[in-house]
Amino acid sequence: MRVITGTARGTKLRPPSSDGTRPISDRGKEALFSILTSRIPDCRFLDLFAGTGGVGIEALSRGAAAATFVELGDVALRDLRWNLEHTRVDDRAKVVAGDVFQFLRRPPLEPYDVVFIAPPQWKELWEPTVQLLDAEPAWLAEDGVVVVQTDPKEIHDLELQRLTRGDVRRYGGVAFAFYASSSQAQVEP
User: Where is this region: Disordered (predicted)?
Assistant: First the structure.
């Protein structure tokens, strides 16, 4: 695990110390940020089920204005905080130690440009997370995007009121599903 590019390029990240955290591969991270490249500079990034923070840290390294990391696990939080300090991007990071669902049930302080969701696989956690974001449009900036990372076999249609699923990109055992406001002319990553 490492930061691929940006101000912290090449910095090795502390891998998960617990079995419950599944980090994104460098290949998957590179593919994701290749898709999101124009959205990252100066964006507000929300990393849900953050684990050790590899995705949000990559966003900060590539020029995101701020990133909020939401993680419940004590061991993952310890590793996340270490990674933020080690990469020297902690001045633009906020760590929320808590449950993603409780976090999303509160009113947002400001909208996010990119919301990244990577829950433990096969636990049906990504669906209610997207539904909570759909129920409260203030979480997402007007031209913002929600990205779900999961196993390709887990992706299926959801009944949503305000968000629409666009592209689904598959990279081996990882899929990224992109959601945006239904009012956008086209749902593009």
Answer: 1-24
- CATH tag for 26-181 (out of 3.40.50.2000, 3.90.10.10, 3.40.50.150, 3.40.1350.10): 3.40.50.150
What is the C-alpha separation between 77 and 11, in angstroms, rounded?
19
Q: How many angstroms separate the Cα of 102 from the Cα of each of 2, 47, 83?
A: 30, 15, 25
What value, to the nearest 5°, has the Cα angle with vertex 134 and ends 137 and 93? 65
Radius of gyration over every alpha carbon of the chain, rounded to an integer in angstroms: 15
Instruction: Write down the pTM of the prediction.
Output: 0.92
Best CA proximity match to 60, nearest among 94, 31, 34: 94
pLDDT, tens only, 93-138:
999 999 999 999 999 999 999 999 999 877 889 999 999 999 999 9
CA 181, 182, 185, 188 torsion-angle sign: positive
- Which of 73, 76, 72, 55 is closest to 64 using CA atoms? 55
Length of the chain: 189
